[in-house]
Design a protein that fits this description.
It is a single chain. By secondary structure, the protein is an all-alpha fold. It has a domain of 31 residues. The chain is 44% helix and 0% strand. Helix 2 packs across helix 3. The chain is elongated and about 55 Å long.
């Protein structure tokens, strides 16, 4: 990274690549999970007060 900074300046700190694999959810599924996440779990009849990623995924599948 230091070598890239010396060569390219501050542009090296904001690389234009994205890491990771392709998305595992389609846009429709993603929007549904986001809608659920905006609600309080207790308002939806679940016995907890905060969401976790695993709880959102289970709720989405229900």
């Amino acid at each position: 990274m230091i070598h890239d900074f010396n060569t390219h300046g501050f542009g090296a700190l904001d690389p234009k690549w994205s890491g990771g694999g392709p998305s595992k959810t389609d846009p429709k599924t993603r929007e549904r999970i986001c809608q659920i996440a905006r609600c309080c779990p207790r308002d939806l009849g679940w016995p907890f007060s905060t969401w976790s990623l695993s709880k959102l995924w289970v709720r989405h599948r229900a």
